[in-house]
Specification:
This protein has six helices and 15 strands. It has 232 residues and is an alpha/beta fold. The strands form four sheets. The protein has a five-stranded parallel beta sheet with strand order 2-1-3-4-5, sandwiched between helices. A five-stranded antiparallel beta sheet has the order 10-9-8-12-11.
């Protein structure tokens, strides 16, 4: 996870960095520090999540986020402030979270929640028949099925025939949010509205079969995912 901390106060930059590192048990975070909004924007670097102070000299936090969104539209932005009333303006930049600097324990929830969102925004590379390579966001996939000699990826907008094998696509998907519920199907657990008997009913109105030998496993994966998302 690539993280930026943007604050013109060196004390707060370091304090927030140390707090964030407390939640990095797997040592998977890379953190860059910036002393101003201008410095951050000039870097043109892309980050998974950026913690940005509202009250900075020069370019303030709101303008910093607006400019950053121009080149990192998928990044998440968390507003930092010592004056919570100022965070009300956060709707202008569609901030992911607002954190009071006096309550830095709130960083844990922001980081955990961001992991769910970033996972959904992650893209995989597929080989579309008649088109060639294409990237597709996980959050757009409803389910995947085998159809004759092809694999079909069903999204909210379209059904995409690709040359990839089912096993190949399955290996690209996170197993906490996708489930191989049948030899012929992989389902996005976030797109299931409910499970009834041996069928999974999906948000687009379709339903797919769950193999008898996978019913217990499929139900467990679905409820585990609901619990995971509810607590992040």
């Amino acid at each position: 996870m690539k993280i930026a901390i943007v604050d013109d106060d060196a004390h707060w930059r370091e304090q927030i960095k140390q707090k964030v590192l407390q939640y990095d048990a797997k040592k998977e975070m890379r953190i860059d520090l910036y002393a101003s909004g201008e410095q951050y924007i000039e870097s043109k670097k892309r980050y998974d999540i950026s913690f940005v102070d509202i009250e900075m000299t020069g370019m303030d936090g709101f303008d910093t986020i607006l400019k950053a969104k121009e080149y990192q539209p998928d990044g998440l932005f968390v507003i930092l402030t010592k004056h919570v009333e100022m965070s009300r303006k956060g709707y202008v930049v569609n901030a992911f979270r607002y954190i009071d600097k006096q309550q830095l324990q709130e960083l844990e929830e922001a980081i955990q929640s961001s992991k769910v969102v970033l996972e959904r925004n992650r893209k995989i590379d597929i080989n579309v028949i008649g088109v060639g390579p294409r990237r597709i966001a996980l959050k757009n996939i409803i389910y995947i099925e085998t159809e004759k000699h092809y694999v079909v990826i069903h999204t909210h907008q379209e059904s995409i025939k690709c040359k990839n094998r089912m096993q190949e696509i399955e290996s690209m998907l996170p197993d906490n949010s996708f489930s191989r519920c049948h030899n012929a199907y992989i389902v996005n657990l976030d797109k299931i509205s409910h499970i009834e008997n041996s069928r999974a009913y999906l948000v687009n109105g379709n339903n797919i079969e769950i193999a008898q030998r996978k019913i217990w496993q499929g139900r467990k994966a679905y409820f585990n995912r609901q619990y995971e998302c509810a607590n992040k």
